[in-house]
Amino acid sequence: MALYLKQLPLGPMQNFVYLVGDTNTRRAVAVDPAWDIDAVLNQLAADDMTLEGALITHFHPDHLGGHFSGMQIQGATDLLARGEKIKVFVHKAEADYVPRVCGLSRSDLTLCEGGDELVLGEQRIRFMHTPGHTPGSQCFLVGDHLVSGDTLFIGGCGRIDLPGSDPAAMYDSLVNKLKALPDHTVLHPGHDYADRPTSTIGDEKRRNLYMRLDTLEEFLGMMGY
Q1: 149: helix, strand or coil
Q2: Residue 181: C-alpha distances to residues 35, 167, 185 (Å)
Q3: Domain residues for 76?
Q4: Structural domains in the chain (count)
Q5: What CA–CA distance (Å, rounded) separates 11 from 63?
């Protein structure tokens, strides 16, 4: 398998941007391209990869770009403004949120849902709908690698006290969807919040308290509900 996978730590909020593609066809996508578009494009150019799309895990500006706390964060809008001929993949449940936080309109978006796949050469990227942090939060599974956005962190999970968050949906996403993946699946989180940049689903099942709670009631209690 000719998997291309790069993890780029970018921005003051400890975000990870990911480049995923196929080294045979030189085709790639960027997951949550934000903060420093030059760094993203320069890395692709250095690796001789052609950008074909932006995969957005959720609509928050630190992953998508847009206005946040007095800052204007670079993101997918800037890729389009620079003439990149790409599709911007957003879960359909996020379609109304995206134009509120950045310069993208609904016509700029390619709406997707859980179970969809994107094929890049030999690589098949499967879209997993994992709501909880936001209504349309999604993870991307390519082979034995999971890019999890703000759904699952190393030793933690995304916040569920923000507009659009749903604690019960987060529990379902963690326990009934991500926990069902093979133990050897490599976890690539959306933020650098741990003492290491990656983990595995098996390690998180053993060590991450939020994946070890047996009932929704226990999860809600842990989260203060």
Answers
A1: coil
A2: 31, 21, 7
A3: 3-222
A4: 1
A5: 10
The pair of three-digit structure tokens given for residue 27, joined into one six-digit string: 């085709």
CB distance 44 to 51 below 8 Å: yes
CA distance 141 to 159: 22
pTM over 0.85: yes
- 87-91 and 71-73 strand pairing: unpaired
Percent of the chain clearing pLDDT 70 (strictly above): 100
Calpha distance 5→128 (Å, rounded): 18
Say how far apart CA 129 and CA 42 lie, in whole Å.
30
CA 178/CA 154 separation, integer angstroms: 13
CATH of the domain at 102: 3.60.15.10
Q: Tokens at residue 66, please?
A: 């847009």
Cα of first residue to Cα of last residue in the chain, in angstroms, is 45
91-146 pLDDT tens trace: 999 999 999 999 999 999 999 999 999 999 999 999 999 999 999 999 999 999 99
Q: Virtual CA dihedral for 46, 47, 48, 52, nearest 10 degrees?
A: -110
For residue 112, give both structure tokens: 């997707």
Question: What strands lie across the sheet with 199-200, from one edge to the other?
Answer: 117-120, 123-129, 138-142, 145-147, 186-188, 199-200
Supply angle C-alpha 87, 170, 186, rounded to 5: 65
